[in-house]
Amino acid sequence: MKFTYKAALLICSSVFAMSVQAAGMPQSSKHAQRGVNCTQCHTTGKFEPVETKQCQTCHNQDQLAQKTDRLNYISRMKNPKTGEVKEHLARINPHDRYHFGKTEDCTDCHREHRPSVNDCATCHDVKAWNMKDPK
Ligand code: HEC
Ligand code: HEC
Ligand code: HEC
Ligand code: HEC
């Protein structure tokens, strides 16, 4: 008896908490328009920040990395004294890149309930990269 009562109370209070939070939680149009709902990301029964592996259940990281591979470019630097030109591949693909490969968390850049940011811009001038802003 006591157990059922506690369980019922727990369910009620978490449903209540969820609806209160839901009221102040506008969802991004990229997902809402596609019918991706709250619990497809928040799978633990609580509204906690969502782990990258949950995003990857729908978004294939390898395919993503292939799609944005086009952003990598050949960087050329000319030595003004010798005229020598050095070339190297600048790996700026945000889904597989120079610093961390494929290991960075999606939500470092793509946010759900607030504007997304390009994390690289903390240190680099990303305008020069011709990259779209992350949605
Ligand atoms: C596409 C995945 C996704 C969907 C769908 C989604 N969320 Fe989130 N939610 C996140 C992520 C990621 C965060 C972490 C913060 C951020 O991105 O702004 C978060 C954070 C939250 C938080 C704050 C948690 C904390 O402790 O900071 C609440 C509350 C929340 N979401 C509620 C909702 C509600 C309500 C819905 C449905 C209307 C919803 N979420 C739909 C991904 C999602
Ligand atoms: C239940 C499946 C599902 C989950 C989980 C999910 N997404 Fe999505 N996401 C979609 C669908 C469907 C679309 C729209 C079609 C598309 O662009 O792939 C989309 C679109 C997007 C887009 C916009 C793509 C564009 O160019 O319009 C981004 C960015 C994105 N998701 C990131 C995330 C991140 C980050 C997470 C984890 C916090 C996440 N998604 C979790 C299904 C999901
Ligand atoms: C360092 C920042 C960063 C991280 C981390 C990141 N992205 Fe992106 N993402 C971007 C940028 C920037 C674009 C737009 C690139 C362009 O097309 O110019 C993008 C594009 C996308 C798109 C649209 C691709 C297309 O062209 O159809 C999806 C979907 C997406 N990201 C999902 C994810 C998911 C899922 C993760 C985690 C596994 C992730 N991203 C991690 C910055 C990031
Ligand atoms: C905390 C600061 C910081 C952040 C955030 C950061 N970088 Fe860097 N990055 C550096 C520094 C410092 C260097 C030069 C030293 C080195 O090569 O490690 C560098 C070098 C690079 C290089 C090599 C230079 C070249 O021309 O080939 C690439 C490519 C690069 N970063 C890409 C990125 C991308 C893409 C992101 C975002 C996903 C990013 N960085 C985020 C600090 C940062």
TrEMBL record:
It is found in: Cell envelope. Keywords: Electron transport, Heme, Iron, Metal-binding, Signal, Transport. Its cofactor is heme c. Residues 31-125 form the Tetrahaem cytochrome domain. The keyword Electron transport applies. The keyword Nuclease does not apply. It comes from the Bacteria. GO terms for cellular component: cell envelope. Residues 1-22 form the signal peptide. InterPro entries: Multihaem_cyt_sf, Tetrahaem_cytochrome. GO terms for molecular function: metal ion binding. This is Tetrahaem cytochrome domain-containing protein. It comes from Parasutterella excrementihominis YIT 11859.
